[in-house]
Input
Amino acid sequence: MASRKKQEIITFKVDEPLWEAMRGISNRSEFIRSAILTALQSTCPLCTGSGTLTPEQRKHWDDFAKSHSLEECEDCHAIHLVCVATDDEEEAG
Output
């Protein structure tokens, strides 16, 4: 017998402009599931989407930032992390 995954129901309130924007979407549940999954895949792994670091996370970030920098991609202009450690630093590290 195949097992079925239990589905949970989550509800939330929306303001009128959001309701109007979503009104024409034929399968709102699928649209919302997809939007949430996409947002979760784009969440910062360090702050987990809070936008702030705890003091402990900040200490780890400061150590990490000593050998990494934020740079803009020349092609797509996205900001990304680049390891700037030299071979000597990596071997000693």
